[in-house]
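Lecture notes, unit on protein representations.

Consider one protein chain, 292 amino acids long.
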Amino acid sequence: MKACLTCKADKVKEEDGICPFTLGDDQLPLRCVGFWAKDKLYYLQRYMGVFNSAMKTKWPKRAYVELFAGPGLGIVSNSDHVTYGSPLLAIEQAVPFTRHVFVDINPDAIAALGKRIKQLKPMADVKLIIGDCNTSVEEIRKSVDSSYLILAFIDPTRMQAKFSTIRSLTKDLRMDLMVNFPLQALNRSYAYALQGYDQKYDDFFGSKEWKSVITGLSDMRSIGARLLDLYKNKLRSIGYEQFSDLGCDDILVRGPKNIPLYYLFLASKNKIAYKFWKDIQRIRANSQRQLL
């Protein structure tokens, strides 16, 4: 247990991300979130909208999969402001997904999410899975198949999602990935990894290639950029081509004191997805319209 960094509660289990002392008006637990989460959710919600509206005719079966779902509602850092999390944003899409698969290791989070979904959309097609996403791949894949067009949101708090999990999850499926690349977590721990505590890095990148990429480097910005490139190359090896000619940006999300926290990026097996990704960024989260 440690002091909660993002809400007014005294303590929170770090691995859970759920504050047991903070409840919503419905008396269900809330996820502690920083003010920066709004940027991530802004782009995710916009992509969900384009994904469903543009593809509903070609793909009448569309699924949303989330590997770190949480309880559906969050409380914003040092405030009383309660906000929708990504699962409820997915549930309430104007053009809906036809199936939803939510995974979380915390049973209290999944129970709360299930109750909130029943209140909002009782007829929604929802599969709730309690467990580590790395050991739940088979159960997830039983819930979707090649007849679905799938959007998966991979939003870990640290480096929990193994690359072998991503490989197994996406095999032979048409699945777009919206990925939170945990820059701060990687930067905090790379020095320890180089000293031999490297299993998490090996699991996250699916190999030991990261060592040769960052050995000898000390600039955090350079390390983060190179590790992101490595991760994208690993995705490319399992069919997620990157189309640099489209000029698609990764979204750098910053936290307190303007510290870089993570990159949000899209990975797809089809070029049209990157066009959607570029299109939704024409109006940024700060309402600044990009040049066409």
